[in-house]
Amino acid sequence: MNREGAKNAKKNAKICFLAYLASWRFNLRSRIDKRGRESKSEKRAFAHNILTISPLPRYLQAMSIIYMIRHGQASFGHEDYDHLSTLGRRQARILAQFLFRTGFQPDAVYSGTMLRQKETAEEFLSVYREGGRTLPNVEQLSGFNEFDSGSIVEAMFPSMAVEDPTLEHDLPKMFSNMGSFKRVFEGAMLKWVTGRFDTPRIESWKDLQARVFESLRQIREKHGRGKTIAVFTSGGAIAASLSYVLGIPGEHAMRLNWQVVNTSISRFMYNEERITVSGFNSISHLELEGEPSLVTYR
After folding, report:
1. 259 φ, ψ to 5°?
2. pLDDT tens, position by position, 251-263
3. Does residue 263 contact residue 87 with C-beta atoms inside 8 Å?
């Protein structure tokens, strides 16, 4: 095939794939519009159907999928943040129940070494055991741990206070006033990701990207084609993965990090040649419950 023919073939393949997606979305939208008011159980059954009736194209079926799952709500504002709240445990169980019904059966399960990540994985596995299905033992990779936000705020704050002295009043109220928390925390994180204020005392944004992607590399190397992998991690690790895979600037990735909902699912597909993003921040399992209070960010 000459160069022009190859170019046309590639263009036609792209058109066919876009047509496939458009058809799938149109059919899905039509079916959703016809649902009307239904019971929660009927909505769950419909959710199961839309996840299973539309097979992926064959060339995508050969790729493996990593489900990166943010931990459930931790104990924000408490002295020991690193453990799940009562709501966080419920979120993890709702996620497991939802995926159990869809037939989700990962070939491997990973988590970081932080308690909130491990507890989310434990709640998830317990639901499967109660349903009579077993999952592989959880393997821990510290590369999926969250960045140390406390150390970052401590390192960034002196220069922030020079630029805006009013922040001195916000610092003592960080964990009791959401406005103060936002001004101090978000300002520190946006400074940190630029790399212009790096110090040996803290992990840099680039170092975070490198360790997260190294953990993803280990998974890709260990698990071949057609595998499904679950990873229980944190918002920062998910944002770093998005930044690395998509090549987006750290500032944009950090803003995405603030949108990552507790127990949301972000998906990455990979084969021997590449890794790509196929979904971000899915919370269908929480939305189906019809309780807005289940959607939390910290």
Report:
1. -95, -5
2. 999 999 999 999 9
3. no
Q: Cα–chain-centroid distance for residue 81? A: 20
pLDDT of residue 244: 92
Q: What one-letter code names the amino acid at 233?
A: T
Dump pLDDT digits (tens) for 179-204.
888 899 999 999 999 999 999 999 99
Please give the structure tokens belonging to residue 245.
């895979």
Q: Which residues contact 255 (CB under 8 A, 6 or more apart)?
A: none
Rounded CA gap, 172 and 180, in Å? 9
For 204-213, b/e burial (b = at least 16 CB within 10 A) is bbeebbebbb
User: Do the Cβ atoms of 144 and 117 come closer than 8 Å?
Assistant: yes
Mean pLDDT for the chain overall: 84
Residue tagged 């110090």 (tokens): 199
Strands 138-140 and 108-111: parallel
Q: pLDDT band for 28, please (50, 70, 90 cuts).
A: very low
Q: Angle CA(51)–CA(56)–CA(59) in degrees, nearest 5?
A: 155
| Range list of β-strands (E), 132-202 | 138-140
* Mean pLDDT along residues 68-96: 88
Tokens of 230: 């679950």
C-beta separation of 212 from 144 below 8 A: yes
- In eight-state DSSP terms, residue 231 is E
Domain ranges of the chain: 65-145+224-230+279-298, 150-194
pLDDT recorded at residue 15? 47
The answer regarding whether domain 65-145+224-230+279-298 maps to CATH 3.90.79.10 reads: no
Confidence (pTM): 0.78
Rounded distance between C-alpha atoms, residue 83 and residue 117, angstroms: 8
